[in-house]
Amino acid sequence: MATSKVERLVNLVIALLSTRGYITAEKIRTSVAGYAESPSIEAFSRMFERDKNELRDLGVPLEVGRVSALDPAEGYRINHDAYSLPPVELTADEAAAVAVATQLWESPELITATQGALLKLRAAGVDVDPDAQVAIASPAGVPGLRGSEDVLGILLSAIDSRQAVQFPHRPSRAEPYTTRTVEPWGVVTEKGRWYLVGHDRDRDDTRTFRLSRIGAEVAVIGPPGAVTVPDHVDLRKIVAETVAETPTGLQAKVWVADGRATALRRAGTPAGPRQLGGRSGEVIELDIGSADRLARDIAGYGVDAVVLDPPALREDVLARLRAHAGVSA
Q1: Could you give phi then psi for residue 259, rounded to 5 degrees?
Q2: Choice among 34-48, 106-120, 201-215 with the minimum mean pLDDT
Q3: Region 185-197: what's the mean pLDDT?
Q4: Among candidates 45, 74, 47, which has minimal Cα distance to 62?
Q5: Lesser CB count within 10 Å: N end or C end of the chain?
Q6: 284 Cβ partners below 8 Å, 6+ apart?
Q7: Residue 327 phi, psi (nearest 5)
Q8: For the residues of 137-155, what is the DSSP string, one character each?
Q9: pTM to 2 decimal places
Q10: Distance CA 57, CA 63 (A)
């Protein structure tokens, strides 16, 4: 299978960050995955020029210089100091999205790919810096992807090969799994969650599936190239519209401890005082717009907020707390 442009650019960045000195274009052609597929030197040169321009457009500080004092050949590298980012301040949702994305680097597939890229560079005679920081560490227990890494890997592979997939899915934790057959178009994140977008063959319609609601038994079916993604389809817009908060007419009853969960109190309507677990508190009623968002908000208060009703919301909150604590149900 041909190397995608994104994969080729990532390989190039890894190579240019990992070397102590400058790498010649010829060494890049023979040692960086994705360039050896060029049918001729001229085709490689055109591809490499486009890639260099694209990296520079992305703000990557690509430098040109002599390979060594004894070798006047022109080579390339990335300036580590200029490439490093200053401290970045993120909102809670932005931090969650970054944490989810970086967790992918802990997967065996990506770790193996990165190590393989560096090994190939060393084998080609490139002076690779042993202290080069090309791996990303990430926090454990990230909501939204926890336990779904294998599912994500299979879906991404199917999307790349344009094959259909079949998997068990349930709309909520309280409902049973049903088998769905989907032509996958892409996977995107929204509010810290991962979603698959595609054409549901069983319903003959565009559908969105949250990865945490997809069972582990995902099967790739049909021949490669059988799936066609519609032109100009906006996956992010589809997901955003699907998960947007809409009034459901349902209400939740939540106990909150005295002096705690102030923001939750402001969003609800007081329904009277109540003792729970020996602690004084108050029952409030909350409108359920997005059950997913409400569960996430309540879970954030830990023992200071307890769902009394409905049972499905209570179970969702408990599942999040167990996942955060690393405890199975």
Answers
A1: 75, 5
A2: 106-120
A3: 84
A4: 74
A5: N
A6: 253, 254, 255, 256, 264, 265, 268, 269, 270, 271
A7: -115, 130
A8: ---S--TTTTT-HHHHHHH
A9: 0.42
A10: 14
